Hints:
Blueprint: H1 3-24, H2 28-33, H3 36-50, H4 60-78, H5 89-95
Helix pairs in contact: 1-3, 1-4, 3-4
Amino acid sequence: MSMTSNTGLSVLYSLRRELVRFLRRVPAPLLSTLPLALCTQFRTCLGALQVPPSFPGSNLQKLHLETEQALSFLEEIANLDGVLLSAPAGVAQARKGGLPVSR
């Protein structure tokens, strides 16, 4: 495995960890106003991100898809009228193709 793929995997795991933190902070009153389909998508995304990857042999495509689904969910609720969400800087930057800044 090359250094590039190790870095990519580290970034993916970091994104997943930050997404879990962010999704856990979505206010319950906001969730209660969402359509049932979005509430179900929220629970599915959060549940998938919380499952620890298996080693060896993590299905990277599955991990990537779950991460993309969580980002898409956040984009969808962020575009609803009156919803104010502020994504962590690392998540927003990674979505644009950059690497999150280490803290």
